[in-house]
Amino acid sequence: MLKIGVGPSSSHTLGPWRAAERFVGELKSAGVLGLTARVRVHLYGSLALTGKGHGTDVAVLLGLSGKDPVTVPLEEVQTLPAAVMENHLLQLDGCHTIAFSPSKDLVFHFSQALPFHANGMICEAYDEDGVCRFTGTYYSIGGGFVVKEGEQNLPPGASPLHPLPFPIATGEELTQYCQENACPISDIVYENEKHWRSKTEIDDGLLRIWDVMRDCIYRGCHTEGILPGGLQVERRAAAMNKKLLATARYDTTAAWIRAIRSSPFGFSEVIKWIGCFALAVNEENANFGRVVTAPTNGAAGVIPAVLMYYLCFTDPEPGPDDIVRFLLVAGEIGSIFKKGSTISAAMGGCQAEIGVSSAMAAAALCERLGGSPGQCLMAAEIAMEHHLGLTCDPIGGLVQIPCIERNSMGAVKAITAAKIAQESDPAKAKVSLDGVIKTMWQTAQDMNHKYKETSLGGLAVNVAISVPEC
Predict the structure, then answer these.
(1) Which letter does DSSP use for residue 159 in this model?
(2) End-to-end Cα separation, the chain, in angstroms
């Protein structure tokens, strides 16, 4: 549920990027890469309607070029697509040059959608004679996950030949395992993760994810300017950081975090810091920076903001094991939402992104603050309950308004939910996590199409801001 990628949208950027990468890999496996003279990519549904604002065209070009979102130098995210658009040449897989005209070979089908999911795309490879040698249909289902047409979307390890020690599809199942084993949620998730890798590999991987989150917060808190896209949105996190610390720039993230932790901030300042952390991540995301899908790019600021709050403003000072366990719990809660509902705004509105991220962060924080498994699931339920029905109506198709500020609101709700759950008896809860997940999915199905990441309704049509054509 936590993937490293490049902004601004996991379903519109990371997913199509991975789909294009996969398409190129399949061309190689089929032995037709060298025969390919032209590639055409068709974008449907939400990928078409808000694709340019979300950077889908840029992501596809990078994926076709063989660049990996985890390792690509961030300057190439801008320069490589610009070169393709100027020269009409693309190096397929980084080694095979073909003609590529973005206006002709990236086709936006604004009034059409593919049947399985609102984020659909078809990739085609043609030889010099114009014969289609290979085609693939892919769906970006949220969080950077990609499903190809005809595939059954099973999680890794779901094969009956290799069962997980604790297969989990619902909150009730997770609760039962915790009760039977008298252990916290993070212990259960650890055992499942050990099905694929060692504890050292788990810890190292999750701490690498935290490094990306932390560095993203730091960059966002030290970068000023106007975000790209034409809305003229001014970055605010750097000014907030400067005002709150009232001192010179710290040269390392560690020194910066120590300065925050050692300062005698009151309640008002802590609230500002939470907002600042979340804004920083999503300003970086809007600027095509490297972020962690948590569970999506549009909601990438909630979990880092809550985790940074935990590191900076709680005692005793959390250590690496606390960070790992926080992320284990957050990831498991996100997985339950993905299995029982959706994490795609194109399918469920913003409740599927900010709502889910807030629930993930709430459960994770609750456990680290000493909450029982029941209280952790209660925290997740509270956080989602108060995001039900949240629409996705990005102005200009950009992941900026209202997306950036929503991450701050989701982070504050997560912390509030965790605190309430800590003081509550889960046995007396009127709404279960599974109940709210079911309700979220029903709400998603009832929600009008125009409020599902299409920019056809809501703020996107009621706010008079002109966005220039790209």
Answers:
(1) S
(2) 32
Amino acid at site 184: P
Rounded to 10 degrees, what is the CA torsion of 408, 410, 413, 415?
Answer: -70
Over residues 55-83, the mean pLDDT reads 94
Tens digit of pLDDT for each residue in 290-349?
Answer: 999 999 999 999 999 999 999 999 999 999 999 999 999 999 999 999 999 999 999 999
The helix/strand/coil state of 380 is helix
pTM of the model: 0.89
Could you give the percent of the chain with pLDDT greater than 90?
87
pLDDT value at 466 more than 80: no
- DSSP secondary structure string, 161-219? TS--SS--SSHHHHHHHHHHHT--HHHHHHHHHTTTS-HHHHHHHHHHHHHHHHHHHHH
For residue 157, the model assigns a pLDDT of 39
Domain spans of the chain, in order of start: 7-148, 171-459
Cα 263 → chain centroid: 31
CA dist 55 and 189 (Å) reads 34
322 closest CA partner among 305, 332, 307: 307
Which residue type occupies 69?
Answer: P
Please tell me the CATH superfamily of domain 7-148, with its number: D-3-phosphoglycerate dehydrogenase; domain 3 (3.30.1330.90)
Assess contact for 341 and 443: CB atoms under 8 A: no
Distance CA 64, CA 330 (A): 32
* Alpha-carbon gap, residue 81 to 105, rounded angstroms: 14
- Side-chain-side CA neighbours of 136 within 13 Å: the count stands at 20
Sheet with 38-45: strands ordered across? 106-109, 38-45, 119-126, 132-142, 145-148
* Mean pLDDT, residues 401-415: 98
Q: How far is CA 47 from CA 8, 153, 470, in A?
A: 13, 20, 16
Distance from C-alpha of 377 to C-alpha of 8, rounded to nearest angstrom: 29
Distance from C-alpha of 350 to C-alpha of 459, rounded to nearest angstrom: 13
Identify the three-state secondary structure at position 235: coil
For 14, 57, 60, 68, 121, the CA distances from 43, given in Å and listed in that order, are: 14, 9, 10, 21, 5
